[in-house]
Amino acid sequence: MRVCGPRCQRILWPAHRTLCGRDPTFFYLPGLTPVEADWLERVKDEPFSLSGKTFVEYVTALTPGLTWKDLVAIVSSDTTSSTLADAMRNTLLVHAFFHLDLMLRNSVGPSPLWHSFATLAVPTFVHCSRHLGSQLGADLWRVTNDVLRQVLVYAALPGAVADPALEMGLDECVRLEILAQARVVEAVARAQVAQAAKDVLVANSVAHLEVLKDKLAALRPTHEPLCGRDPDVFYLAPLSPADLEQLERTKGDTFPVTGDSFEHYIEKLFKVRPWPTFISLVTSTEPTSPSHATARNNLLAYSYLHLGAPILAQPGLPALPPWHLFGCLAADWIQRCTRPRPDTGVPDCPSRDANRVLNGLLRQELVRATIESAARGPDPAIDEFEARLWEVVACGRTLKELERAELGDEARTRLVKEFKEGVLDPRANALLERTMQDAQVQPI
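Given the sequence above, the corresponding structure tokens read:
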């Protein structure tokens, strides 16, 4: 396998290592682990989505003469005695991984690589096996080899985001996924299968590409305001006309930080023409000085908090713009780091330095807010399971940036503890707790 460098090699290795050193013209799936075999035993009598039968009924009908015990032994093995036997093993494995993915998704969090691969590969398998007239023949796994290898690369990319050594951004991940799907289409065009099968597989890839473009579009609104700006200083997007209109309507409502109205909070900050002065700051795009930038960012964070908090308090998962959701996160960080501590009277971070000291941390929180926003509402751009994986990664990166921040050791230790315990952000704590619970039951 040729790669452009060590980083790409690391990205692709989880997908490639199972195939490394094997026949490059024949696709190969790894055997079930003991834990996976145990899980398959538990869900074998559940309905199998490709038929009206249970999983055990479906696969035993597919291989007459073999018992369930025989089938488990085959899919748990690493090799077989012949290419034909390898083909049968592959067919049973793709069904087994597919069934496990559907049965376990709600209970174990993000899918393991080969489970998600099987779900993505099922259209290729079904339509090409119809063309070839067999689900068990060796030809099936030779004809679809190139296509399935590209599908495997596509399936492996979301997991690369979780690799701390790669430090892959979500934007980069989605762009690589788009490239991988384009390579799937190219592989389908080369495959020696009927045009009808090719048409279905290309349509499936086009559907994936549309979803990926929606993801990219969901990430763009929060990335564009920072793009091209000083990477060492945080910057908040100015209020949009719609935000201004909403803020004008709700300025008399209670502000969560003070318990008074938002308008009264602004009046305490500015003695002369308070509301017009405030509006000029939060609609400006270019800060004229560091103090102006600090005041602008702080006011924007509180404005977005005021706009987002009432919606966030509603039950369920109502849609919430990413900057509004971010305001709820950022305002808490800014408050805790810049207000004087009761024991010393000195803040952990001077207000004038907050944009620089908290820059990396706020950028990760913005990513987390963008993900959560994209996963909300009636037509989410990111599905629940992928959002959960990305949010876990973003939480981990927030902690990493907090540990890097130019804060005193005591302040850093306290803020890390508060973040993990949920004092700083209860939703982050709930997410981390849920992740730890998953780690105790996840089979892989």
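The chain is about 65% helix and 0% strand. Try to locate this feature in the token string yourself.
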